[in-house]
Amino acid sequence: MKYISKSLTNNAAFSYIIFLFGPTGVGKTELLLDLDPQRFSVINADSIQVYRHLDIGSAKASKEVQDAIAHHLIDVQDPWEQFSVGDFISYADKACEKIHQEGKIPVISGGTAYYFKHFLYGLSEAPPSDEGVRAEVFAQIEAQGNDWAFKRLGEVDPISAKRIHPSDMYRVSRALEVYEASGKPLSSFSLPTVPRNGMHPLVIGLVRDSALLRSRLGLRIKMMFEEGLEEEIRDLLRMGAESSWPGLQGIGYKEFFQAMEHGEWSRSIIADQIERNSRFYAKRQMTFFKSFSEVKWMDPSDKEAILTEIAQYCCS
């Protein structure tokens, strides 16, 4: 694969970024292993893999994979700490600069759709997070529950309530925080429509037959339990983990804490819930990703076509 000979350290070169996204279980990691590690580095765009100690349930790239090709934005936060989309943009910008200075091209890979969207276009004009207001909103949710929070969002910002899944408490609480801080719904603040920093990324969306994706999800969840997901949960509990920790809101973790709150710990029931939630999440991911423009949708099994697309972009 021919490589770009121009310098990648100026603003114009910042446009050389590859987006590689798709639903959970589609096969992003396998494809990354086919990239030349001397020419590419990966920036993780998964909102749970940024957390330390959350390895198996988040399907984090293994040490072998990370040794094969450099990864950034993995294990950068403790699971009890918030990690916002603004944090992601800041970390990813620094990672891109570092990767370009190394003469490589960054590949942003993951399944957190709003990370990709806001990294490309920037954040909305909504007021920045206020720690005091955020603490008040969090206390209300703790006292009255997640169902109350989503109902409240529907009352003050029905447009955002349609866009945000009821279980996505990070985004629900953020929308409530904006309303409490400004008196205006989050949906009333406009989003930028022009890419930041002159970016012209290659945007590749991975898609598989739905029946095959369901089968892959089932196998993936089975493997997680075989690799020690239950012991990972026990390790977290020994650390003092609480269901309110931001890192534990992800699929693969929240099901265990929900089960414990009901006085249950049935491996088969929890596995079924993880699989069901993963299927629903994959559908929501695809709905969001399909709203992106200029996406090249490709089947990850056709690696030759994908690598050719990347080679043509890199040499343009």
Counted by DSSP, the helix tally is 13
Beta percentage is 5-15%
Class by alpha and beta content: alpha/beta
Can you tell me the residue ranges where pLDDT is under 50 for at least 5 consecutive residues?
A: 1-13
Termini Cα gap: 12 Å
- What is the share of helical residues? 40-55%
Mean pLDDT: 88
For the record, the CATH architecture of the largest domain stands as: 3-Layer(aba) Sandwich
Counting copies of identical and different chains, the oligomeric state is single chain
CATH superfamily of the largest domain: P-loop containing nucleotide triphosphate hydrolases
Task: From the 3D structure, determine the CATH topology of the largest domain.
Answer: Rossmann fold
For the record, the CATH class of the largest domain is Alpha Beta
Query: How many domains comprise the coordinates?
Result: 2
Rg from C-alpha positions? 20 Å
Describe the global form.
Answer: globular
| SSE sequence, one letter per element | EHEHEHEHHHHHEHHHHEH
Please give the order of strands in the largest beta sheet.
Answer: 3-2-4-1-5-6
Largest sheet: 6 strands, parallel
Number of strands: 6
